[in-house]
Amino acid sequence: MQKRFDHIALGFVLGLIMPFIGMYGYYFFTYRTQIDFLYFIDFASTTTRAIVPLLSLGCILNLGLFFLFMWRDRYKSARGVIIATFLYAGWVAYMKLFAV
Prior knowledge:
With 100 residues, the chain is mainly alpha-helical.
């Protein structure tokens, strides 16, 4: 029987969104009183040395999402989260090795 919310696409989309939620959390707890959020996003997106660690830190949230899906026996959704995390890992490795 097909379980509710057990789709690879759901896990993939949530796995792509969670690192950005982690970036917002980092901004909220660190820079909220000093700089505007739009300035923070502009700086992070134009500076390679800023975006790579932020996305790497944000991918830790994918670990929690993965274990939540595993705990609830949503194995296809967990597989989607892993695919999204590997996509981010490849992009971060490319940015660290080849980007200026």
